[in-house]
Specification:
The complex is a heterodimer of chains A (about 525) and B (about 290).
Chain A lengths: L7 H29 L1 H8 L3 H9 L2 H7 L12 H28 L1 H6 L1 H6 L7 H28 L6 H28 L3 H25 L1 H4 L5 H4 L10 H22 L24 H29 L4 H6 L2 H7 L6 H33 L4 H4 L5 H34 L7 H10 L1 H17 L6 H15 L7 H4 L17 H24 L7
Helix pairs in contact in A: 1-5, 1-8, 2-5, 4-10, 5-8, 5-9, 5-10, 8-9, 9-10, 9-13, 14-17, 14-19, 17-19, 17-21, 17-22, 19-20, 19-21, 19-24, 21-24
Chain B lengths: L4 E10 L2 E11 L4 E5 L6 H8 L7 E6 L8 H5 L2 E4 L11 H12 L4 H10 L13 H13 L5 E5 L7 H16 L3 E6 L2 H5 L4 E6 L2 E6 L1 H5 L3 E8 L12 E7 L2 E7 L3 H10 L2 E7 L3 H10 L1
Parallel strand pairs in B: 3-7, 3-8, 5-6, 6-7
Antiparallel strand pairs in B: 1-2, 1-4, 8-9, 10-12, 10-13, 11-12
Helix pairs in contact in B: 3-5, 4-5
Classes of the chains: A mainly alpha (about 525), B alpha/beta (about 290).
Bound molecules: adenosine-5'-diphosphate (ADP) and magnesium ion.
Chain lengths: ~525, ~290
């Protein structure tokens, strides 16, 4: 028995030495993020802020995203309760993700790279490496718990109790340890490290979605979910330690299983054989369009899901909009316009925010063409019957189509959720879609800019993001900061009327769309004329 | 016969770098042309101009009588190209990428593809992420060779291939040669194209320094000879065509003029040859000669 783990302690010390920089960033970064936002929450909680937040987060849509709270009346919703409610699940998922990457990176990945073989040749036990990495990960998570708890205790704020702080930190650390256990098992089962990482993160995502459902239908069921063993500890409210014990037991069992599995397998091989890829391409891949969809698929899907979820999250606020905005002077200045219902003015601003986010997607797609060019992926394709026209317009049109879908999803899920949570909605779904699609020309404008730059000055592609960030910032804070009119006019968002406070203006809509198309055409002229840049 | 590929006084500048100063050569129908030069000489730049990937600054270029910048679409219908450096998408397998390239090219032969995959011993089901440089090269070559073209342009096609696969490649090129197709084959190693090329074009710092058949070029320089004889090998030192003779024990090393090769061999036989090695000139030798001349 001992032989298998021979010299693990030596490896452990070695790993701490090797990883200390990474550990410092990990513990400080995640620790300060997890504990450091308390002052911001104190700010939000001022006045009736906690009450408004409580009401907002009672919405099923929000519960499925951030989780439930055991607090039953708004008046008992302290800063601590609010903080744990909104932060614990996400910080825990963060801790889990990093631990998963760390464990697989130092076990299976090194094995795939042949480093483990090297180590084993030095009289080190067969399983010493796994044990050392596991102990290291647990150790790092304990440091993390100590930092989080320490920082939180030091706030000395009403509602942030010592017991709660310790539990809050411990819960996040437990999340990391549970993740490490799952990762170690997957590292044994899967054929290569990338699929071990993929499956571990996949399990985490799956458990997250399941708990979103059980949180709404029956919270008790969430307690048989490993995620429940850290985010349902309810720090600062009930301070339950039972889940922590369950999480510890679960992790120990996972580690035992992992060691048993490792014992029975060959180095560099998993239990599931490597999946064979396709020897022939599917028909859907065999065109420039098919290829570009394939290349952008991941980005497109993940952004579209983001828009959709964001729409739901913002939509949920409509349930108690009055309370939410009234409680907070800052929010009110940002979102309210005199003479209109609070829902209407909120919709206008929030859509500008969401349209800003939707804009990222087409820019990414257009810029992708240049990164493919520069990184030599298209070299052989340049020698085929594919014309530059196809490469360019396929990218641009894919960008346009996904923008339209993005706006539809964002506005639609915002509207749909808003209408379902409001008792008598002053707006119908078409109103929401109109507010959204009214902003489409701004998205096209940014897409046009990206296309123009792709055609003429491709290495400057990042500039479009800078301009987008700038416009986003200005239009977001327009209400708070007293900015001169001309400055605001430098943002494309300001060129279009604010629906529903102002009327839809077809002329402006068409003009900006036409300008955007003009930019794309002009970009094409450049793209056709310039040298392809093939320097990695 | 009129050339199907013609360049004349080609120039290209990248910022301050004058990549091509004066590139002139041609490829005739049925001809395999080796395009040789050290790294950075301008081979890829020339080839990219020929494919319309970049635009020439000066000079003329023509393939099938058409301008590669303006009529690249027409030209591409009849050529196959494998770039020197390729990246392959890690989310696709080698087989998928080959199919994609063939489809985008438009005239691929499925059977030929399967045959070539077998010959080059490529695992088409593996993700291209895990491919070595040699395997990436194979993907490009298989796609290009599966397609029926009139002109094949290969940029350093054998870099990264192991000797066995290089052999396979050479055999496939022979077939193209037999089918009377043309090829432009770049390399920074002279011996790689020696067996295949009908003609060699040598480029150095953006200028063509030699053009001709290998034989024509060879007579310009001398082979290295290592000779071991029963009798005293030093007698070789003074005959015509032998240069820079050095002796180690019974072994003599010298350079030989090709015109005198026969005389040298006759003399060597008289001395009782035990061992004879003749190494043809390398690219470096050709350059050395160019400097001297
Ligand atoms: N896109 C580019 N931008 C700037 N310099 C380049 C570019 N492409 C090639 N060069 C330069 O041009 C010269 C010729 O390069 P290249 O044609 O790639 O040589 P070879 O293919 O013969 O190795 C080199 O000095 C190289 O650095
Ligand atoms: Mg090159």
């Amino acid at each position: 028995m001992k032989e298998k783990f021979a010299h693990w302690d030596m490896l452990f010390v070695q790993y701490l030495k090797r990883d200390w920089k990474k550990i410092a960033i990990w513990v400080l970064g995640l620790g300060l993020f997890s504990a450091g936002l308390v002052p911001a929450f104190v700010e939000i909680g001022k006045g009736d802020g906690t009450i408004a937040m409580y009401e907002t987060l009672q919405n099923p849509a929000m519960i499925s995203i951030v989780g439930p709270t055991p607090v039953e009346t708004a008046s008992e919703y302290t800063i601590g309760a609010m903080y744990a409610h909104e932060m614990l699940l996400f910080c825990g998922l963060f801790a889990m993700t990093i631990s998963i990457l760390h464990v697989i990176g130092h076990t299976r990945k090194e094995e795939d790279l042949g480093l483990t073989e090297l180590i084993r040749s030095f009289q080190v036990g067969r399983q010493a490496n796994s044990l050392a990495v596991m102990v290291e990960t647990v150790f790092i998570n304990i440091l993390l718990a100590m930092l989080i708890s320490g920082v939180m205790i030091n706030y000395r704020i009403d509602g942030i109790t010592v017991g709660g702080s310790v539990l809050f930190g411990t819960s996040i650390a437990m999340a990391g340890i549970v993740g490490a256990g799952i990762a170690l098992v997957m590292a044994q089962i899967m054929p290569i490290s990338s699929s071990a990482i993929g499956s571990s993160l996949g399990i985490m995502g799956f458990l997250y979605i399941i708990r979103g459902v059980t949180d709404i239908s029956n919270v008790k069921l969430s307690m048989i979910n490993p995620l429940g063993w850290f985010y349902l500890t309810y720090p600062f409210v009930e301070n339950r330690w039972l889940p922590v014990i369950l999480a510890s037991l679960f992790s120990i069992i996972m580690i035992i299983i992992a060691f048993a599995l490792e014992e029975g397998r060959d180095m560099g091989a998993g239990y599931i054989p490597q999946r064979e890829g396709r020897a022939n391409a599917k028909k859907s891949l065999l065109s420039v369009y098919g290829l570009f969809i394939h290349l952008n698929k991941g980005v497109i899907i993940s952004w579209l899901i983001t828009f959709f979820v964001l729409g739901i999250a913002y939509g949920a606020i409509y349930g108690d909009m009055q309370g939410f905005l009234e409680s907070n002077e800052l929010m009110k200045r940002m979102f309210a316009y005199a003479g209109f219902s609070i829902e209407e003015s909120f919709s206008s601003t929030v859509m500008v925010v969401m349209a800003g986010l939707v804009t990222i997607l087409p820019i990414v797609i257009v810029n992708k063409l240049f990164s493919e060019e520069k990184n030599l992926y298209l070299s052989q394709i340049y020698g085929t019957k594919v014309r530059r026209r196809q490469l360019y317009w396929t990218s641009v049109s894919l960008a346009i189509i996904t923008s339209i879908i993005g706006v539809f999803l964002a506005a639609g899920s915002l509207g749909g959720t808003a209408i379902s949570v409001m008792e008598n909605s002053p707006m119908n779904i078409m109103d929401f879609l109109l507010i959204g699609f009214n902003l489409l020309p701004t998205i096209l404008f940014f897409t046009g800019l990206a296309a123009l730059i792709l055609g003429w000055w491709p290495s400057l592609g990042k500039i479009v993001y800078v301009y987008l960030g700038y416009s986003f910032f200005l239009s977001y804070f327009e209400g708070i900061l007293d900015l001169p009119e001309w400055l605001i006019k430098t943002t494309p968002q300001s060129w279009l009327p604010k629906i529903p406070m102002e009327d839809f203006n077809a002329l402006i809509f068409i003009i900006i769309t036409a300008i955007s198309i003009g930019l794309m055409i002009f970009g094409y002229i450049g793209y056709k004329r310039r040298d392809m840049i093939e320097r990695a | 016969m009129t050339a199907i590929l013609k360049v004349e006084g080609l120039k290209k500048q990248f910022g301050k770098v004058q990549a091509l100063r004066d590139v002139t050569f041609n490829v005739k129908p049925g001809e395999i042309v080796g395009f040789i030069g050290p790294n950075g000489a301008g081979k890829s730049t020339t080839i990219r101009i020929l494919l319309g990937i970049i635009k020439r600054d000066g000079g003329r270029a023509e393939i099938f009588g058409k301008d590669p910048w303006k009529d690249s679409f027409e030209i591409h219908k009849r050529i196959s190209y494998v770039p020197g450096d390729v990246s392959l998408w890690g989310s696709l397998t080698g087989g998928e990428i080959i199919d994609l390239f063939m489809k985008l090219h438009g005239s691929g032969d499925k059977e030929k593809r399967d045959y070539l995959i077998e010959r080059f011993e490529l695992d088409p089901r593996k993700n291209a992420k895990g491919y070595s440089k040699g395997n990436r090269q194979k993907v490009g070559l298989i796609a290009a060779l599966s397609v029926d073209s009139d002109l094949y342009i290969f940029d350093e096609p054998t870099s990264g291939l192991d000797p066995l696969m290089e052999q396979v490649f050479q055999e496939e090129v022979e077939k193209i040669k037999d089918a009377n197709k043309s090829m432009l084959l770049s390399s920074h190693i002279l011996s790689e194209v020696e067996r295949l090329a009908d003609k060699v074009v040598i480029i150095r710092q953006g200028e063509i320094v030699e053009t001709g058949t290998l034989d024509e070029l060879r007579h310009l320089t001398r082979s290295t000879v290592i000779l071991e004889t029963k009798d005293d090998v030093s007698k070789m030192a003074n005959i015509n065509g032998v240069h820079d003779f050095v002796q180690k024990d019974n072994q003599g090393i010298f350079f030989a003029d090709h015109e005198y090769l026969n005389d040298i061999l006759v003399k060597a036989t008289k001395l009782g040859t035990k061992k004879l090695e003749i190494t043809p000139p390398t690219l470096e030798d050709l350059f050395m000669r160019h400097y001297e001349g």
